[in-house]
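FIELD: query
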Amino acid sequence: MSKSTRQVNKNFNPTGKGGFGDNPQNINPGGEPKNSLKNYVARKLAGLTDKEKDKWLKEHKISGIDQWKMGEGNPETNVKGDIEITKKVISVDE
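FIELD: result
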């Protein structure tokens, strides 16, 4: 029987270098705040039945695209531009 990719590649850091041992400044000892508004709303909505969730979305007029963003996350918004300035305008105040 063959192993899946997930079963074969379980060690994502084979050298063991990096992480919080080498970068203690990146440690967040308290973790994410437990009583943040985001966590409260997530728990509140997670406790609803599917019917209650549908009712809530309808009552609050959440559009289909916003429902998708809530479920999947916002799409990437990195925008790169390649521009060239062809004229230079100089203004002289009198």
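FIELD: remark
Residues 48-73 form one domain.
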